[in-house]
Amino acid sequence: MTQASWYWRIRVTGAYIAARFRPLPRLTDRQCNICGYYGPFGPGGKGTRHDARCPHCRSVERDRLFKLWLDKEPQSLVQKDVLHFAPERSVASLVRPLARRYRSADIAPGRADLVLNIEQLALEAASVEAVICAHVLEHVDDGKALRELFRVLKPGGLAVISVPIIEGWSVSYENPAVVTARERALHFGQWDHVRYYGADLRERIRSAGFSLGEFTARPDEVVRHGLIRGDTLFLARRPD
Ligand SMILES: [Zn+2]
């Protein structure tokens, strides 16, 4: 190794160590709209987002976005038969008391009320009134999953969907050459994601038969509740 490359190796390692142990700036106080906590939030996303998680109810940004939407449209879930995929605890605590019937579902046994594969749901057609499906579609064959959600929803039923999305990309990024966990993390943001969505998520949802609405928080709500700017809930309704 040349003398110059040793020099840079030591410089980079030193800078990394300094950054690793430098204290974070004091975090702004936020208000959790789920549990009422007021104060600084803690790290979420395995530490990648340092102002994300409510230390009291463990909610992250998208859970609090869901609560904002629910406050504005409670009739979508009140007294409904609700199916909640990959259930977030804080969201479940909100929905369970409102719903007429609440069931959680996960593909992994032991995590939810039902063990279900979203690509092939062991449920009767038109048997559910509302579905909550946050950050699931980026893990699966979304064409199959969206058709299955459409099939099990009653006419007029609603699927509340969120995914990681890059709005500046008109076409979602999928790449059959990306197969290992390490490559998926690099290309799609997490070891078990199979794509990174672009704005064409909307066409994917509509092509399963849904009509589509959207909910995005206002800037003052983003600041108060520690949300991600522009984060969107997609409201996919099976037409009557
Ligand atoms: Zn909270």
What does this protein structure show overall?
- The chain is an alpha/beta fold.
- The protein has one domain: Vaccinia Virus protein VP39 (Rossmann fold), CATH 3.40.50.
- Helices cover 30% and strands 22% of the residues.
- The chain contains seven helices and eleven strands.
- The chain has helices at 3-21, 61-72, 89-95, 142-152, 181-188, 201-207, 219-225, and strands at residues 30-31, 38-39, 42-44, 49-53, 81-85, 101-106, 114-115, 128-134, 153-162, 211-216, 232-237.
- The strands form three sheets. The chain has a seven-stranded mixed β-sheet, with helices on both faces. Strands 1-2 form a two-stranded antiparallel ribbon.
- A hairpin with a 6-residue loop joins strand 1 (30-31) and strand 2.
- The longest helix has 19 residues, at 3-21.
- The structure holds zinc ion (ZN).
- Residues 32, 34-35, 37, 54, 56-57, 59 line the site of zinc ion (ZN).
Name its key features.
two-stranded antiparallel ribbon, Rossmann fold, binds zinc ion, 7 helices, 240 residues, single chain
In short:
By secondary structure, this protein is of the alpha/beta class. The protein is about 30% helix and about 20% strand.
Blueprint (SSEs and pairs):
Blueprint: H1 3-21, E1 30-31, E2 38-39, E3 42-44, E4 49-53, H2 61-72, E5 81-85, H3 89-95, E6 101-106, E7 114-115, E8 128-134, H4 142-152, E9 153-162, H5 181-188, H6 201-207, E10 211-216, H7 219-225, E11 232-237
Parallel strand pairs: 5-6, 5-8, 6-7, 8-9
Antiparallel strand pairs: 1-2, 3-4, 9-11, 10-11
The structure holds zinc ion (ZN).
Residues 32, 34-35, 37, 54, 56-57, 59 line the site of zinc ion.
